[in-house]
């Protein structure tokens, strides 16, 4: 994971026609991942630490992980194929037998939700980061106009 990934964070969430636009990036560049409306709302709730009456699916997954002494190490947004982003969820389990790292293919929306819920780092592959369109100006205009962003 050395130089082939860059750290990023969720810079904003904006409702869009087909769901939600999740603005992900760093000081250099911001790009957009489109997710379903309900996933955008869930990610926003985790970012704001909004109390929930009942556990959401990602809370449940976190509880199962905790029960098995598994932690989310990081998430990595890996590639873009046919307008669909791909991601990897990197988990660590430590027990009396030792330490095990597992990488799981997962939807970026689920990865972002788990990272937001558990305050874990988000990375993007450098090659992908170089190819995505920079949406920094769009996010700045939205913020200037008082848009709903995190």
Q: Tell me the total number of β-strands.
A: 7
Low-confidence stretches: none
| Tally of individual helices | 5
- The helix content, as a percent range, equals 25-40%
Q: What's the CATH architecture name?
A: Roll
Strand content: 35-45%
Sheet with the most strands, sense and barrel status: 7 strands, mixed
Query: What is the count of structural domains?
Result: 1
Strand order of the largest sheet: 3-2-1-7-4-5-6
| CATH topology-level fold name | Bifunctional nuclease domain
Specify Rg, calculated over alpha carbons.
16 Å
> CATH H level: which superfamily?
Bifunctional nuclease domain
CATH class identity: Alpha Beta
- Mean of residue pLDDT? 92
Structural class: alpha+beta
- Gross morphology is globular
Alpha-carbon distance between the termini?
Answer: 28 Å
Q: What does this molecule look like?
A:
The chain has one domain (5-144): Roll (Bifunctional nuclease domain), CATH 3.10.690. It starts with a strand and ends in a 6-residue tail after the last helix. Helix 1 packs parallel to helix 3. A seven-stranded mixed sheet has the order 3-2-1-7-4-5-6. The chain has five helices and seven strands. A hairpin with a 2-residue loop joins strand 4 (70-81) and strand 5. The chain has helices at residues 37-47, 57-67, 108-118, 126-131, 136-144, and strands spanning 5-16, 19-25, 30-35, 70-81, 84-95, 98-106, 122-125. By secondary structure, it is an alpha+beta fold. The model has no long low-confidence stretch (mean pLDDT 92).
